[in-house]
Design brief:
Structural class: alpha/beta
Shape: globular
CATH architecture of the largest domain: Alpha-Beta Complex
Strand content: 15-25%
Number of strands: 9
Helix content: 25-40%
Number of domains: 2
Radius of gyration: 21 Å
């Protein structure tokens, strides 16, 4: 007898993004794999999003349109109403890569706590694939995170370790992954497929928020891993300097003895590694 695939809860958070919401709805409704429920948490939009949800209410298992306290408050609402064994957050505007995405992912669900795939990133001028590592380390989380639009999370983890920290405005999902994987050793597995498409127009992708993101991450690291933060900063700085050196070597490879690179080194702008 074949084992039934775990129920998946797809959660979409939206606020005044009707165009993006339409794209997300279409993606979810087109999936070939059907053992999922769909929840939409709208923050009281006044741009026609509510009317769009009403129009598609028969295809949505649960939706609400009311003011909230921010994106993580809305995501926590979705968690509290979700009934699936695994949750995935596909926020307004983002979408599953194609109609087979859930079919591909569900084959990996059931054993590990967290399952994640690769992500297609769409910017203003170009599109590229971001590949995520099979092995996750503390230093990896110092620099990066997992892609919530391409990550399936066992709901039981939220009951056991808590929901998203609503005091953080941009990196609460990063903090949650950091804690449950690094501190509590929850299991994970990488799917070698592009599962979702993420549009770089959200709060975490806004260049003006980079300083805020770094500040929030430093607060979390100082709280949970204070003994590592100076060491990781040094590694990060050395890596960035080495990237600069490598690029200049490529650009000015025709110059004998890399004279310009040596000049930059003398000025203290880059370091030469032998």
């Amino acid at each position: 007898m074949l084992k039934m695939a775990p129920l998946i809860s797809i959660i979409t958070v939206n606020f005044n993004d009707k165009i993006g919401l339409e794209r997300t709805l279409e993606s979810v409704f087109s999936q070939n794999f059907r053992n999922f429920e769909y929840l939409v948490i709208d923050g009281g939009s006044n741009d026609g999003s509510k009317e769009l949800l009403e129009k598609n209410s028969e295809k949505i298992n649960y939706w609400v349109s009311e003011p909230d306290k921010g994106i993580y408050n809305a995501m926590n609402k979705g968690i509290s109403f979700a009934k699936g064994e695994y949750l995935i957050f596909l926020n307004s505007g983002d979408h599953l890569k194609n109609e087979n995405s859930l079919e591909i992912a569900q084959k990996y669900l059931g054993k590990e706590d967290i399952i994640y795939g690769d992500l297609e990133l769409v910017g203003n001028t170009h599109t590229f694939i971001k590949e995520y590592p099979k092995h996750l380390s503390l230093y990896y989380f110092y620099e990066s995170s997992l892609p919530h639009p391409a990550t399936f999370i066992r709901k039981e983890l939220f009951k056991k370790f808590g929901y998203y920290d609503e005091s953080l405005k941009i990196v609460s999902d990063w903090k949650w992954f950091l804690r449950v994987i690094m501190q509590f050793s929850c299991t994970y597995k990488k799917i070698p497929k592009v599962l979702s498409t993420f549009y770089q127009d959200g709060i975490s992708s806004n260049s003006s928020n980079i300083i805020k993101i770094e500040a929030e991450r430093e607060i979390v690291f100082k709280e949970h891993y204070p003994e590592y933060i100076d060491y990781f900063k040094e590694i990060h700085t050395l890596k960035e300097e080495n990237k600069i050196l490598t690029e200049y070597k490529k650009k000015y490879a025709h110059l004998k003895n890399y004279k310009l690179v040596r000049l930059f080194s003398a000025l203290g702008l880059v370091k030469i590694y032998k």
